[in-house]
Amino acid sequence: MTKAEHYDLCIIGAGSAGLSVAAAAVQFGVRVALIEKGAMGGDCLNFGCVPSKALLAAAKHAQAMRSGAPFGIAPVEPEIDFAAVRDHVRRTITAIAPNDSEERFAAMGVEVIRAPARFLDAATLEAGGHRVQARRFVIATGSTPAVPPIPGLDGVDYLTNETIFDLAERPDHLVVIGGGPIGMELAQAHRRLGARVTVLEALTPLAKDDEEAAAVVLDALRREGVEILSGAAVTAISSEGGTVRATVSLDDGEERIVTGSHLLVAAGRRPQTGGLDLEAAGVASTKAGITVDRSLRTANRRIYAIGDVTGGLQFTHVGNYHAGLVVRNALFHLPVRADMSAIPWVTYTDPELAHVGLGEAEARERHGEVHVLRWPFAENDRAQAEGRTEGFVKVIASRRGRVLGADIVGPEAGELIQPWALAISSKLTVKAMIETVLPYPTLGEVNKRAAYVYYTGLPERPWIRRLVRWLAKLG
User: Where is the Pyridine nucleotide-disulphide oxidoreductase dimerisation domain (predicted)?
Assistant: First the structure.
């Protein structure tokens, strides 16, 4: 092994979180090493956010061709070239890849090492023959698909988000294990692209979201032909003659056999720590992920962990948020504290499903009396013009009107949740939304109408009426 190379900052993992740290740190003139054993850009670019949204976009175009009748457009069943859909997904990745490339980061001054990393001790690691020492390390190795211990699963060919985007032929019948965001997004996309789809969820589909809002999404998917079985625990998997067979135990005790041409496992994620030899570095971890404090430091104070590998909310934007905190703390010694109270998330089904802050039950538990402010898309003029009236905005506010949380289900929910995230992070009240002038007609007005609900009944209060009468006498 060569002589040790010394860096100010060494980052393990070139996914979104690691790249964000590297790009920010190198601008301040520090010496940065970036180690990646796989594809630059990590899961988000290659297997997650980017390809899934490209696939959903193709599926949306197919669905639009079927649903023009209310607008006077004759509906047609689209002819789908699934290989061309795959090519669209690949082109999207290729278009974005230069931003995450080794060449770009090397040009910035980052030392990029393409090899697996493993710690030798608390201040040293080895990667591809390089012996690296650094003042600070950042572990940003992300997560991989969790594979549940279902009898027979290891004996059949199955897909995960890391392989499904390589399909050149449309599945005849896609069976999906897992009714979370990944499972539901890919289920709807493949259904719209012409496949039969069955989703098997052992508990409740989209369980982390508001139950009423999630129900709107599930109803929409079922109307499009996606079969969704909740309380459906898969007890065995087998394959015969190119057909996958899933034995399912339902909540009512019934046993059912579900057959399909392809099997997608979308049963969550697990942190990617294999081969790092964390114990040698004095870094504590559990099955859930690397243990960190509120400043994202591990048990070894010179090592940080960020993003999915910490086992918290597993979103690209969380990794990027973590990256900013680490740069501030590691380079400038500024005190930081990860605050997850205003982290939004979105499920990109159609309609979309978005959340930020506290849910209704949690808000009542923490704050006692709260206001639940609702407004339906059906009462929004732009939604009526677009024929997209399903869903609603639901905002939770304190007694004094401070925004505590929001759930949105409907068109462009991922865009519409953003002002509520700002309101929570800035500790604003609903008054800020009410006093904001919004363009007409836009979907964004549904947020403002929901905020107005806080003052419902105010004109009917006797003291308000008496005040108005008294002011009227002043001329």
Answer: 343-450
Q: Which two tokens stand for residue 354?
A: 């978005």
**What total number of domains does the chain contain?**
3
- CATH assignment of the domain containing 220: 3.50.50.60
In a domain? residue 85: no
The reply to whether 312 sits in an annotated binding site is: no
For the chain, 475 residues long, give each residue's pLDDT as a single digit of tens.
567 899 999 999 999 999 999 999 999 999 999 999 999 999 999 999 999 999 999 999 999 999 999 999 999 999 999 999 999 999 999 999 999 999 999 999 999 999 999 999 999 999 999 999 999 999 999 999 999 999 999 999 999 999 999 999 999 999 999 999 999 999 999 999 999 999 999 999 999 999 999 999 999 999 999 999 999 999 999 999 889 999 999 998 899 999 999 999 999 999 999 999 999 999 999 999 999 999 999 999 999 999 999 999 999 999 999 999 999 999 999 999 999 999 999 999 999 999 999 999 999 999 999 999 999 999 999 999 999 999 999 999 999 999 999 999 999 999 999 999 999 999 999 999 999 999 999 999 999 999 999 998 666 667 666 766 776 878 6
User: Does residue 53 lie in a domain region?
Assistant: no
Together in a domain, 208 and 259: yes
Q: Is 180 annotated as a binding residue?
A: yes
Cis peptide before 441 (omega within 30 of 0): yes
Q: How many residues does the chain have?
A: 475
Is 142 labelled a binding residue? yes
Does 52 belong to an annotated binding site? no
| 181 assigned ligand-binding residue | yes
Tell whether residue 141 is among the known ligand binding residues.
Answer: yes
To the question of whether residue 254 is assigned a binding role by annotation, the answer is no
Task: Confirm whether residue 13 is marked as ligand binding.
Answer: no
- Helix or strand or coil: residue 47? coil
Residues 6+ apart with CB under 8 A from 403: 357, 395, 396, 397, 420, 423, 424, 428, 429, 430, 433
143 is in an annotated binding site: yes
351 is annotated as contributing to ligand binding: no
The CB density around residue 464, as the number of other CB atoms within 10 Å, is 12
> What pTM was estimated for this model as a whole?
0.95
